[in-house]
Write a structure and sequence with these properties.
By secondary structure, the protein is mostly helical. The protein has five helices and no strands.
């Protein structure tokens, strides 16, 4: 039975696909660009250059000697020391006999500002 059906199909003439259908089918078969390709399309060389620059910065940051970690821990250690000293002076004042020696409640320290050793020359006139 299968062979009869196949023979009849081979004998039938092929019909042409309508032009509109053919255009739609071919358009759907084309590969669609990914969302990131559409987003980067306006200038892909600029994006590639930016990515290369960030890769170099990351590589330099990773391979740099341990300076980046030292800066953060040094400042936190000094704040810890300051808090410890303040607590210690309060304990000494609490256990001392005279009230005159008690230190006044200190205000919280002001935020540290960057300092420069370079002096600016100002001219008047």
């Amino acid at each position: 039975m299968n062979s009869d059906f196949e023979k009849r199909l081979q004998e039938m003439p092929l019909r042409e696909i309508p032009g509109l259908w053919k255009d739609r089918i071919m358009a759907a078969a084309q590969p669609q660009p990914a969302w990131w390709q559409e987003w980067l399309w306006p200038n892909p060389r600029a994006w590639a250059g930016l990515a290369a620059a960030w890769a170099i910065i990351l590589l330099l940051h990773i391979t740099a000697p341990g300076e980046s970690g030292a800066a953060g821990t040094g400042s936190s250690a000094s704040w810890q020391n300051f808090a410890f000293l303040r607590q210690e002076t309060e304990l000494i004042a609490r256990f001392s006999d005279s009230e005159e020696k008690r230190p006044a409640a200190s205000a919280p320290p002001a935020a540290t500002k960057p300092r420069s050793s370079r002096r600016m020359k100002q001219s008047i006139g």
